[in-house]
């Protein structure tokens, strides 16, 4: 799979990290195929994170991800899902490698700056969640 979906999460967006994060993503060789600034309703955030339903952090995550604007970006690169997950660093910013987006711009396990699709199948589902065919290039 050559596509992955990322979100610049509300805290990172509100801190004006969007430009710096997109610069890092482009410099790492990912190409932007679609992008939008939007705010999810709690219901939409719940749908997006449906796989985590029932986990202790689900309600808080849904609340956070619908708390303000986020930037959704569809990215292309060879082996995009795995490459992007390695590139952004560990889920917990405290455990992420120096110089990664999550280390630089994440502030907590929940507010870890960016999302990255975890499989080719989910990348497709997530791309269709945010973008119509006319919004993809
Ligand atoms: P993402 O799916 O956002 O790329 P991930 O695959 O590294 O992250 P997941 O386990 O899929 O992590 O969790 C999804 C998101 O839920 C994480 O990015 C994080 O914001 C939040 N999260 C995960 N585990 C916890 C936890 N134990 N406490 C609070 N928030 C959590």
From TrEMBL:
<keyword id="KW-0067">ATP-binding</keyword>
<keyword id="KW-0479">Metal-binding</keyword>
<dbReference type="GO" id="GO:0006183">
    <property type="term" value="P:GTP biosynthetic process"/>
</dbReference>
<keyword id="KW-0547">Nucleotide-binding</keyword>
<keyword id="KW-0418">Kinase</keyword>
<dbReference type="InterPro" id="IPR034907">
    <property type="entry name" value="NDK-like_dom"/>
</dbReference>
<keyword id="KW-0597">Phosphoprotein</keyword>
<protein>
    <recommendedName>
        <fullName>nucleoside-diphosphate kinase</fullName>
        <ecNumber>2.7.4.6</ecNumber>
    </recommendedName>
</protein>
<dbReference type="InterPro" id="IPR036850">
    <property type="entry name" value="NDK-like_dom_sf"/>
</dbReference>
<dbReference type="GO" id="GO:0006228">
    <property type="term" value="P:UTP biosynthetic process"/>
</dbReference>
<feature type="active site" description="Pros-phosphohistidine intermediate">
    <location>
        <position position="115"/>
    </location>
</feature>
<dbReference type="InterPro" id="IPR001564">
    <property type="entry name" value="Nucleoside_diP_kinase"/>
</dbReference>
<dbReference type="Pfam" id="PF00334">
    <property type="entry name" value="NDK"/>
</dbReference>
<dbReference type="GO" id="GO:0005524">
    <property type="term" value="F:ATP binding"/>
</dbReference>
<feature type="binding site">
    <location>
        <position position="112"/>
    </location>
    <ligand>
        <name>ATP</name>
    </ligand>
</feature>
<comment type="similarity">
    <text>Belongs to the NDK family.</text>
</comment>
<feature type="binding site">
    <location>
        <position position="102"/>
    </location>
    <ligand>
        <name>ATP</name>
    </ligand>
</feature>
<feature type="binding site">
    <location>
        <position position="9"/>
    </location>
    <ligand>
        <name>ATP</name>
    </ligand>
</feature>
<keyword id="KW-0808">Transferase</keyword>
<feature type="binding site">
    <location>
        <position position="91"/>
    </location>
    <ligand>
        <name>ATP</name>
    </ligand>
</feature>
<feature type="binding site">
    <location>
        <position position="57"/>
    </location>
    <ligand>
        <name>ATP</name>
    </ligand>
</feature>
<keyword id="KW-0460">Magnesium</keyword>
<feature type="binding site">
    <location>
        <position position="85"/>
    </location>
    <ligand>
        <name>ATP</name>
    </ligand>
</feature>
<keyword id="KW-0546">Nucleotide metabolism</keyword>
<dbReference type="GO" id="GO:0004550">
    <property type="term" value="F:nucleoside diphosphate kinase activity"/>
</dbReference>
<dbReference type="GO" id="GO:0046872">
    <property type="term" value="F:metal ion binding"/>
</dbReference>
<dbReference type="GO" id="GO:0006241">
    <property type="term" value="P:CTP biosynthetic process"/>
</dbReference>
<feature type="domain" description="Nucleoside diphosphate kinase-like">
    <location>
        <begin position="1"/>
        <end position="135"/>
    </location>
</feature>
């Amino acid at each position: 799979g050559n596509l992955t979906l990322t979100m610049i999460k509300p805290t990172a967006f509100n801190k004006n990290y969007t430009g710096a994060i997109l610069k890092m993503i482009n410099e790492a060789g990912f190409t932007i195929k679609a992008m939008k600034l939007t705010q999810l309703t709690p219901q939409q955030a719940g749908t997006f994170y449906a796989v985590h339903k029932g986990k202790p952090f689900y309600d808080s995550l849904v609340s956070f991800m619908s708390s303000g604007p986020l930037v959704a970006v569809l990215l292309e690169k060879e082996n995009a899902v795995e490459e992007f997950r390695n590139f952004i660093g560990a889920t917990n910013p405290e455990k992420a490698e120096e110089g990664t987006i999550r280390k630089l711009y994440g502030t907590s396990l929940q507010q870890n700056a960016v999302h990255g699709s975890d499989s080719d199948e989910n990348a497709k589902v997530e791309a269709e969640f945010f973008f119509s065919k006319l919004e993809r290039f």
